[in-house]
Amino acid sequence: MSPQGQAMAFKFDGGAASPHATTVARDVRQTVGEVRVIDPRIRCTDINVHYGTKHAIKNISLDVGKGEVLAMIGPSGCGKSTFLRCLNRMNDTVRECRVTGEILLDGEDINGRHIDVVPLRARVAMVFQKPNPFPKSIYENVAFGPRIHGLCESRADLDVIVESSLRKANLWEEVKDRLDDVGTGLSGGQQQRLCIARAIAIEPEVILMDEPCSALDPISTAKVEQLIEELRQQFSIVIVTHSMQQAARVSQRTAYFHMGDLIEVSETDRLFIKPRHQLTEDYITGRFG
Amino acid sequence: MTNPSNAQPGGATSFARIQAGMAKRRAAERRFKMLGRLAVSVGLLFLSVLLFSIVSKGYTAFWQTQMRIDVTLLADEIDPEGTRNAETLRKADYSSLIKQSMRDMFPEVSGRRDKFALYGLVSNGAAFDLRDKVMADPSLIGTKVSLWVPADDDVDMLMKGHIDRDAAEGDRRIKDNTLGWIDRLKAEDRLELRFNIDFFTKGDSRDPELAGIRGALMGTIFTLIVTLSLSFPLGVAAAVYLEEFAPKNRWTDLIEVNINNLAAVPSIVFGLLGLAVFINVFGLPRSAPLLGGLVLTLMTLPTIIIASRAALKSVPPSIRDAALGIGASPMQATLYHVIPLALPGMLTGTIIGMAQALGETAPLLMIGMVAFIADVPQGVFDPSTALPVQIYLWADSPERAYVERTSAAIMVLLAFLALMNLVAVLLRKRFERRW
Questions:
Q1: For position B9, what pLDDT does the model report?
Q2: Which CATH number fits domain B214-431: 3.30.2130.10, 3.90.1640.10, 3.90.650.10, 1.10.3720.10?
């Protein structure tokens, strides 16, 4: 950020030259907006993540509300996926990754000593960027979670869970006649909905989605987005996306990340219409940098 | 030139240049292809020469000259007291009966030396065949029976044309008078080439016509069973732990380097280790398939571990993420999803290791599996030998008849190898999945 940039930011300060009422300059990396919500599902305070010597996430505090979709946007490498993976401790599997700070799930620190990641991930399930169904039958894909967590007493119970999960994922009608087919044989969009069905089969509280539509065509994307809207009634959803349109369509709140900093968090409408930070404005208006 | 906006003016020249270079490029392409084809054909040529030489030398071993002899089973000789006691029948002197029948066939032969040569036309195994026949049916005693018995290996070699009749008498193993007897036997239809069942049902012998592959084959099977049942679970468990669970630090790096080094250790060193540790310290029975299996396990473990780790590494991490992301424990993710996907690769590695173990001779020499063992082993504790060692032993024997048996044993070894590979391919097909 050059001195000119800063000067320009001050020039925009009055809002005369800009369609938006930007108030915070590019150099200021303090989070602006409403990081806290009333009665949060997840409350993160002062999260720092280091990969070896790289400081990937810098002092981020953010809440995830109940029954809301929180979208995280930002340029590549800004740390949004890393932050997402902190929420169910998937970063544990990454070597040399160190997470500090406090993440409370329903008031309980998930990094606490006595916390076991296995039940934690059953409460905070994850859907990945690339559809990754198991190379097993569609039925087995959905049944795997309930089975390993012991959520079903009998095969009949399991049938019920599989059906309701596939219904919630809007996939039942398409696959009900071929539950024994291999899950990897479905189309990309169907695979991703299968992965979502697999996640909701274990009745989590939060579903983390890491760019769930980046590998999908527009029609499949629309289906998944519609699904996210329906799932919001039951679960909190945190979604990382590269598409600002998608963030605008599916989320209630949006967080903008930039080079490891959380720049701005607002109601989605407000963030896209009236960003308060210069960096946010640069990004959403497409003249980033 | 590189700038697309300059394409218009430079276009014609660069296109011409590309055209000019094309002939050279195509020639290079062709040369490369030819080299590849040449390499493949040279390989195939050597393989076919090898197979042809083995098969052409060895196929005759599957036929064996048998001789029909008429033996009078004198009750006085076999069972003078007439008890028909099994022990008496077993101990009777059947070879003298056979000698008698030979004398009856050639009454004109006289003199110790000639008689000795005459008796030598029949294999030593004939007496055993006769004994088995009598013991199976004692009512034959007192009658005259006609039976086919193996002929001596020299007769066999003559029948198969491996002895030159036209050579000077002093240069050939069969003297002129013996040659006359053989011709007479042939004229009387008493000599015949028959399928050599003994080769597949009997153990090793000092008499080539009686030597069979069964002992070595069973020894190899037992050894490989021990090797497989130890090295596969150990190798896979080690690979899974190192790849999926072990922390990555200096110690695991050290272990990895050492495993890679172990894979390159000459196999005879493992034989010495087996001798020093398994025999001298633990006192395991020498020459036993159990011991051979343990030594070969040491040898194949690194191969299996390295191949299994490569197979585990090639499982896409997204599968692990998928399982972990919905709360599977690392063990569940590994057991239910990673290992099934890695299994075909692990099986490939195992089969490569087992094929190595199958053909290994050097370490077995060190632990006594090179001994002459005539009995067919019944279990992993019985002394035995193995196919490659048997090949070595026969190749080392001076009798002409062992030459074809050596080649035949190689054919059995190769057939066994092909069978193992077939099983591996089928298993791999069975477990292979798309992802």
A1: 54
A2: 1.10.3720.10
